[in-house]
Design goal:
By secondary structure, the chain is an alpha+beta fold. The chain has four helices and three strands. It has a three-stranded antiparallel beta sheet.
């Protein structure tokens, strides 16, 4: 499919999505009324929806007390994770790589 055809198809589905939203009908009823497949409407809604920014998770790292074994305590939202510094580094790297 050429770029111009792809753009035209996107515009067609943008208009269809707007028509559905303004109709007040359920997706199923609107698609049935317009003889369209509901799965196509769902696909195009996802495809044309604005991309959301990746969410930033607040991360607090507590340094170990000298008398304690060498562990770090990570507080992520309401979850507490205890790990060695090496494990914590792997976890932090994984969290940064997979927002």
């Amino acid at each position: 499919m050429k770029a111009a055809q792809r753009k035209q198809l996107q515009q067609l589905w943008l208009q269809r999505i707007q028509d559905w939203q303004q109709s007040g009908l359920s997706q199923t009823a609107w698609c049935k009324q317009h003889q369209l497949n509901i799965h196509q409407l769902s696909y195009w809604k996802r495809k044309l929806s604005p991309k959301t920014e990746s969410k930033v998770i607040p991360l607090a790292v507590a340094m170990p007390k000298p008398e304690m074994p060498s562990t770090l305590v990570l507080h992520i939202n309401n979850v507490q994770v205890e790990a060695t510094p090496e494990q914590a580094a792997i976890l932090i790297h994984a969290l940064q790589a997979n927002p």
